[in-house]
Write a structure and sequence with these properties.
Chain B: Pfam families: MnhB (PF04039). The complex is a heterodimer of chains A (about 800) and B (about 140). Chain A has about 800 residues and is mostly helical. Chain A is about 70% helix and about 0% strand. Chain B has a two-stranded antiparallel ribbon. Classes of the chains: A mainly alpha (about 800), B mainly alpha (about 140).
């Protein structure tokens, strides 16, 4: 167990101690104890930058289930480290924020921090593990802890709804991910991602390539809230705001991005990957930003904006795979670099925006933009934070969002030159969708900012008197927005330390030896088309924002019935109702129906096997001649059988049944089985007597002797069963392949057991074990009858 | 099968004789079982049928007076004997339910074959008698 392993599981270990601290150290807010750990971890990971920026990696294995090749292999490279830094860095800030956000007196702090630490540990595990099964384990742990965090205020119905929805969707994706991993294991024989990357050729050649690709992408898309799986994210906003800031903007939703980036070396050579990833991303970008504009809840705006921004990162990762096909890969590689850069930027501005929204909610009591307004002078610091965050999100200088958006436009424009996978016919879509999506991004950023802080202050609509937040709550967002500004002016402090090693781990195949990508982000790159696109976005965005009231009706055109949420709700409801209905149709509660199922299954299974395998054959070899006695007795038996089935009264049926039994005894006599004949005779007598007893005790009311209601199905089923059994008996009798073992008993009955009655010797000696349990069965039956009758009598139940 | 008010002199008189004949026949079936048709199972059924005849001719109470036996215990004893026969073979280091037999000169009977299988059969016999009678008595007592 190395320090790396300890670092990954440390949050989980601390989660065990939190309840104790929360219970016994009540004076200090529990969050302070939690805060120490992510800060320490951040420092720990920060010191690794030196290693990864020189192309170094760290790998440490802890054996877990070595016989299955499942080991806790921690692996740190540029990509993993970038995410680890995001998780611990934003984690520290969120914990600090939550200390001031969550009240010590009113909230259950223990569970909150336990879930949060669980999530942090799980997330670290996802990004720092090389073994896919362990990755999947941590992946599901993030789903579970996210579920717990969304449902933190479990007394609210909406929280529970949101938690259940996110659970269903992300677990659906998680399971599909597991399927993809298993397929990859089948191809490569290894659970290690490194190993899979080294066997890319085998994976590409395999027939499982496409299924594995699709399954893994479904896992990534559900987690990252891509179209059409994004619907859980807006409902997850019922979680406390620190959770939304942490999970649903900076970390968990980026687990899918991480996965796509991590598996790029495995899948990205294929056209399927290029099209699925980049199209899903660009559609999500457009759809998310389009929908964000109509929201009236601040957190809902941010949720849709997260969806849209994640789509943007995803599309860049997809487009970046074009670099793999060309010698001059730098032309397309800019997309990958932009994706990484925007990932970092998004974490900074979205985290700060969520925190600012949390402050507004906390200090005014509402998040509805129709009730908010004029907070600019009342909450100046929050306004500044929101301004920087929103402008950065909209892609305006001088904030970091501008840079990554420029690079985004660059990569979208460059992809129009791409001519593989018939991209040249459709690639014009990318810049168009990207640009319109950006316009909407601009509009909702302005809505977010100016409808909250601009306009008139409406104190009568607010629950509390608005005022500036305490300093502690402001620290985290201030740090984040300062980063947003710093990354604009000095983008290259990230270039060689973080972005370049991360790009190297996404595109490892492009580098030879010690070669490195040239990542240089410049603020100014001349009057390029990208700049004019941005200006266009700003101009059109301002115009559209000004005239928002006029064209907002557009959203009304889209019927509510066709939304994905409605589809989800209805399909869930339909599934529940349908399965209920289906269960009720066949679970009728009638024994006769179940018997029909069993018999029909028997006919299909046994008869079908007989037909399909051609198992039926008929030969008369070795059969004995049929004598007159047998014929007569058979006739009697058949007649009695018909008598039983078609009897009009129960008494006739019982007596006919008795006739069958006695005829059977006669058959035993003819076939020389005296012991059987004797037993059959007596048993038949007793059972007929018992039948008569039952008959006598039948309740008077329902005593209506009448003909059986003839049912065609019953007749068909019974004829079918009879036919199948007959055919089976004939076939098995005609194909005897082995000698009977009865000669052994005949020879040894007297020699070994000292008895001449072979039947008896077999029963008590050769096969005495069976007899022992048969008499046990008898005793159980007797005790059962005794118990049933006596207990009923003692209870004084319904006696007749 | 409960108290019969009628005066079945003929039935009762015949029963007195027939009962013993049936019992004797059932003993014959039991002991003949090893070499001729018969055995514990049939013998048990026969014995209980003689008891049933008693039940038919007299009432339940009378039969309980004549045979003050709880037949559940009979069944349990039978099962116990059978299991013990099986366990007994462990004493001789043999596998479960290994039987042995031998010929002995006994006073009065002369050369006789004695087999442990008969002990097992006795268990079967008692179980069958016990079970049959328990079922019939229980149902009969139920009104």
């Amino acid at each position: 167990m190395t320090s790396l392993h300890i670092a990954i599981v440390a949050p989980l270990v601390l989660a065990f101690l939190i309840p104790l601290l929360a219970k016994y150290v009540r004076k200090i807010h529990t969050g302070w104890f939690v805060l120490i750990l992510p800060v320490l971890l951040f420092v720990y990971f920060f010191r690794m930058i030196g290693m990864t920026s020189h192309g170094g990696t760290l790998k440490a294995t802890l054996e877990w289930i070595p016989s299955f090749g499942i080991n806790f292999t921690a692996y740190v490279d540029g990509l993993g480290l970038l995410f680890a830094l995001l998780i611990t860095g934003i984690g520290s800030l969120v914990v600090l924020y939550s200390i001031y956000y969550l009240s010590k007196e009113k909230e259950q702090l223990g569970p909150f921090y336990v879930y949060l630490l669980m999530f942090m540990g799980a997330m670290l595990g996802v990004v720092l593990v090389d073994n896919v099964i362990v990755l999947y384990l941590f992946w599901e742990l993030t789903s579970i802890s996210s579920f717990l965090l969304i449902g933190y205020w479990h007394k609210r119905e909406k929280s529970r709804y949101g938690a259940a929805k996110s659970m269903l969707i992300t677990i659906f994706g998680g399971l599909s991910l597991l399927g993809g991993f298993i397929l990859l294991y089948i191809i490569t024989g290894s659970f290690s991602i490194r190993e899979m990357i080294s066997q890319v050729d085998a994976i590409s050649a395999s027939g499982f390539f496409l299924p594995a690709l699709v399954l893994i992408l479904i896992g990534a898309f559900t987690k990252s809230a891509q179209f059409p799986f994004y619907i859980w994210l807006p409902d997850a906003m019922e979680a406390p705001t620190p959770v939304s800031a942490y999970l649903h903007s900076a970390t968990m939703v980026k687990a899918g991005i991480y996965l796509v980036a991590r598996f790029t070396p495995v899948f990205a050579f294929s056209g399927e990957w290029f099209w699925i990833v980049s199209l899903t991303g660009i559609v999500t970008l457009f759809w998310g930003s389009f929908n964000a504009v109509k929201q009236t809840d601040l957190k809902a705006i941010l949720a849709y904006s997260t969806v849209s921004q994640l789509g943007m990162i995803m599309s860049m990762l997809g487009v970046g795979s074009a670099a793999l096909h060309f010698q001059h890969f730098h032309y397309y590689l800019v997309a990958v670099i932009a994706a990484i850069f925007h990932l970092i930027n998004h974490a900074t501005f979205k985290g700060s925006l969520f925190m600012a929204v949390g402050i507004i909610d906390h200090e005014t009591g509402t998040r509805d933009i129709r009730r908010l307004g004029g907070l600019m002078t009342i909450m100046p610091i929050t306004f500044t934070i929101s301004l920087i965050g929103a402008f950065s999100m909209a892609g305006l200088p001088p904030f970091n969002g501008f840079l990554s958006k420029e690079m985004f436009f660059t990569s979208m424009l460059r992809i129009t030159d791409f001519n593989l996978f018939s991209a040249d016919t459709w690639s014009f879509l990318f810049p168009v969708l990207a640009w319109t999506g950006s316009v909407f991004t601009f509009i909702y950023s302005m809505v977010l900012l100016f409808q909250t802080f601009g306009g008139k202050y409406q104190p009568e609509k607010l629950e509390k008197k608005a005022h500036e937040a305490p300093l502690g709550m402001l620290i985290s967002p201030i740090i984040l927005v300062s980063l947003a500004v710093i990354f604009f002016f000095f983008p290259n402090i990230l270039s060689y330390t973080i972005i370049e090693p991360a790009a190297a781990s996404i595109m490892p195949g492009l580098l030879d030896g010690d070669e490195k990508f040239k990542v240089h982000i410049s603020i100014w790159h001349g009057f390029s088309p990208e700049l004019f696109m941005t200006i266009g976005v700003a101009v059109l965005g301002i115009l559209a924002y000004r005239t928002l009231g006029k064209w907002k009706k557009v959203y009304g055109l889209f019927p509510d019935k066709l939304t994905l949420n409605n589809l989800y709700d209805r399909s869930l409801y339909g599934l529940e109702k349908g399965s209920n209905k289906a269960t009720r149709t066949y679970m009728t509660g009638f024994l006769r129906d179940y018997l029909v199922y069993i018999f029909v299954f028997f006919i299909i299974a046994v008869g079908g096997t007989l037909v399909l395998t051609g198992g039926f054959s008929y030969s008369v070899k070795g059969t004995a001649p049929i004598g007159v006695y047998e014929l007569v007795l058979s006739a009697v038996m058949i007649a009695a059988t018909f008598g039983t089935v078609f009897a009009r009264s129960r008494l006739t049926a019982i007596i006919a049944l008795g006739v069958i039994g006695y005829t059977l005894a006669l058959f035993f006599v003819i076939f020389r089985a005296p012991d059987l004949a004797l037993t059959q005779l007596i048993i038949e007598t007793i059972s007929v007597a018992l039948f008569l007893l039952c008959f006598y005790h039948l309740p008077k009311l329902s005593f209506k002797p009448k003909t059986k209601t003839f049912r065609i199905t019953n007749a068909l089923v019974s004829i079918g069963v009879g036919a199948v059994v007959t055919l089976l008996a004939l076939a098995s009798n005609s194909q005897r392949s082995l000698e009977s073992i009865s000669s052994y008993f005949i020879e040894n009955s007297y020699k070994l057991a000292g008895g001449r009655n072979i039947v008896n010797v077999v029963l008590v000696d050769f096969r005495g074990f069976d007899t022992l349990f048969e008499i046990t069965v008898l005793v159980i039956a007797a005790l059962g009858i005794y118990g049933m009758i006596r207990l009923r009598m003692e209870k004084g139940g319904e006696e007749h | 099968m409960n108290k019969q008010q009628t005066n079945d002199v003929i039935l009762q008189t015949v029963t007195k004789v027939a009962c013993f004949i049936i019992l004797l026949f059932s003993f014959h079936l039991f002991f003949a079982g090893h070499n001729n048709p018969g055995g514990g199972f049939i013998a048990g059924l026969m014995t209980s049928s003689s008891f049933v005849l008693l039940l038919l001719a007299y009432d339940l109470k009378t039969v309980k007076n004549i045979l003050p036996i709880n037949f559940i215990y009979v069944a349990a004893t039978g099962l116990f004997i059978s299991v013990c026969t099986g366990i007994g073979s462990f004493v001789f280091g043999a596998q479960f339910l290994s039987h042995a037999f031998g010929y002995f000169h006994l006073p009065l009977l002369g050369k006789t074959e004695l087999a442990t299988a008969v002990l097992f059969d006795t268990g079967v016999y008692l179980v069958v008698v016990g079970v049959t009678m328990t079922i019939i008595q229980t149902i009969g007592e139920r009104e």
